[in-house]
Amino acid sequence: KSGFVAIIGRPNVGKSTLLNRIVGEKIAIMSNKAQTTRNKIQGIYTTDEAQVVFIDTPGVHKPQNSLGDYMVKSAFSALHEADAIWFVVDASKKRGAGDNFIINRLKEVTNTPIFLLVNKVDLLKKEDLFEVIQTYQEDAPEWTEIFPISATEGDNVPELLDTVIQDL
Ligand code: GDP
Ligand code: MG
Predict the structure, then answer these.
(1) Does this model's pTM top 0.80?
(2) Stretches in the chain below the pLDDT threshold 70
(3) Ligand 1 centre and the CA of 148: distance in Å?
C-alpha cells in the first residue's frame, strides 16, 4: 500500500510538529529538499505494510497579487492529486480568516477524503473540545473524519496513521 497525504493549514497550527512526530529521523533518509513538480515532499512514513508520502502545500494563503494568486492556485492543485488531505487547525485559537480561506478552497475538492485535525488539544479543557469542533463544521465541507490530536504529546496520532493507512 502506498499513497500521498497533503497537509494543509494556516501557519503555526502545528503541521511541521506533526510531521516530525510521524516521520522523525526517517526524514533524513531522503533529501528533505526533494521536490515533486509542485510540492515539497516533507517526509515518508514507512511500515511493513505501507508507505505514506507527506507533501505540504506551500504558499497557501490569501494572495496579495496575481503572481501570488498563481502560486496559491498551484499549491491547491496538489490537493486533487493527494489520496487524503489533512486539514490542521489550532484548537487553542478561534477559527479565523486564514482557516476560512483554506476551507473555502477545500469545498471545491471532490473525491478526496478530507480529515479535520484539531491540534493542540493539550491546551484545551476537555469540555471545550466539542464547541471548538462545532465551529469547524459550520460553513465547511463534510469532514471524512475528525481527529482531536496533540502533535507535541502524540495524542491520537497513531490512530490517525492507522486510519489513513487502512484507507489507502
Ligand atoms: P506549522 O507552521 O503549522 O508548521 O506549525 P509548527 O509545527 O511550526 O508549530 C507552531 C508552534 O506550535 C510551535 O511552537 C509548536 O511547538 C507548537 N505546537 C505544535 N503542535 C502543538 C501541540 O499539539 N500542542 C501544543 N501545546 N503546541 C503545539
Ligand atoms: Mg511548518
Answers:
(1) yes
(2) 25-40, 57-75
(3) 14
